[in-house]
Design a protein that fits this description.
Low-confidence stretches: 1-5
Number of domains: 1
CATH class: Alpha Beta
Strand content: over 45%
Number of strands: 7
CATH architecture: 2-Layer Sandwich
Helix content: 25-40%
CATH superfamily: START domain
Structural class: alpha+beta
Number of helices: 4
Radius of gyration: 15 Å
Distance between the termini: 53 Å
Amino acid sequence: MKDVVVAVDVLTEIVIDRPCAEVAAYAADPSNAPQWYVNIESVVQRSPSQVDFVARFLGRRLAYTYEVVELVPGERLVMRTAQGPFPMETTYTWESVAAGRTRMTLRNRGEPAGFAKVTAPVMAASIRRANQKDLANLKRLLEERR
């Protein structure tokens, strides 16, 4: 049996002062991603389950396709790269923590290959910083919509 090593595993969370259904609906809609993700430049919905993203990360342009592999509306969304520079899985979860407040978690897991494998620790730190900014942006956008 071969051990599976995940070189990047970053979990970030934030509490947003908006109802869970609203946070989940906004965050799960790929067309909103460029508004709250600092690195995403464009999004094209290929099909109901496949989305093409173009992003800037660590000074490089990345084009990749995510496939939705699990969706529980208002609770959980899991996407995996179908095409891209390295295998990555992104998971969003949403949980009501009080009336009108939502805890959202954003998790990125993957196994970079080639040169990216060597830079995995730097990549994980960069992903963590970007995710913190992304969730702060999402919080600001949604809380300003009141």
